[in-house]
Amino acid sequence: MLSIGYEWVLDHLPGDVALSNSKGAVEDSTAEHCLALILASLRELPRAHQLQKEESWSRLWTSSLQGSNVVVLGVGGVGTAIIERLKPFKPAKITGVASTARTINGGIDVVSIENVHQLLPSAEIVICALPHTPQTQGLIGKEFMDRMRDGALLVNVGRGPIIATAALIKELETGRLRAALDVTDPEPLPVGHALWNAPGCIITPHMAGNTGQFMELVSELATRQVQLLSSGQTPLNLVR
């Protein structure tokens, strides 16, 4: 299948059908898009675009990735690819969050998800790169957002249902938090939904992996899978 996430397929598959994902083909493009969302939000590019349309040369002072404290929820393939792209921008600190605490990628601390709340008051940027599971459903809800610092940016390139949409809209409408979302709940986001025009929110239509390079990589992966199957070998990236 043409994604890393696969939970939405399982209910539609017979029990004796194997399933593989596109691990290795989509991580880089998703991480690249995540960085684009972060920079666009921090450097106020939507506002700058509006000024351009108004033909107004009004200089903006913005926040920046440099010197920011960043928390990355999920340190799988996408999360680690995001962390590697964050480093050259010289954030003050990058902390990962996963099911178990450890150290990765040359000294990046990973905190257990049970302790994520202690990181939020000091984080300027919180990035979600988690899969959608029963454990992550609604993880970023009212209590989570209440602990985030004023003006913090919440980025989601994981799955929409991990964020409680109603709670996020309330935070955006007060101007206390900002958001940059490639995934939403519901999805597709219907016409007229409050999230479309919520203040401080950038939305892209689940397009993080949609690049020509991804199509080349996933085509190569599909060819390799056929070769393995035809020779009686086990396919790559089996998730079931």
Q: Could you outline the blueprint of secondary structure elements for this entry?
A:
Blueprint: H1 27-42, H2 45-53, E1 69-73, H3 77-86, E2 93-98, E3 102-104, E4 108-112, E5 125-128, H4 142-147, E6 153-156, H5 165-174, E7 178-181, E8 201-203, H6 212-230
Parallel strand pairs: 1-2, 1-5, 2-4, 5-6, 6-7, 7-8
Antiparallel strand pairs: 3-4
Helix pairs in contact: 1-3
Describe the structure.
The protein is of the alpha/beta class. Helix content is 29%, strand content 14%. α1 packs across α3.
User: What strand line-up does the widest sheet have?
Assistant: 3-4-2-1-5-6-7-8
Shape: globular
Estimated helix fraction: 25-40%
Uncertain segments: none
Rounded radius of gyration (Å): 19 Å
Number of helices: 6
Mean pLDDT: 93
What portion of the residues fall into strands of 2 or more residues?
5-15%
Keywords:
single chain; 240 residues; alpha/beta; 8-stranded mixed β-sheet; 6 helices; 8 strands; 14% strand
Task: Briefly characterize the structure.
The chain has 240 residues and is an alpha/beta fold. It has helices at residues 27-42, 45-53, 77-86, 142-147, 165-174, 212-230; strands at residues 69-73, 93-98, 102-104, 108-112, 125-128, 153-156, 178-181, 201-203.
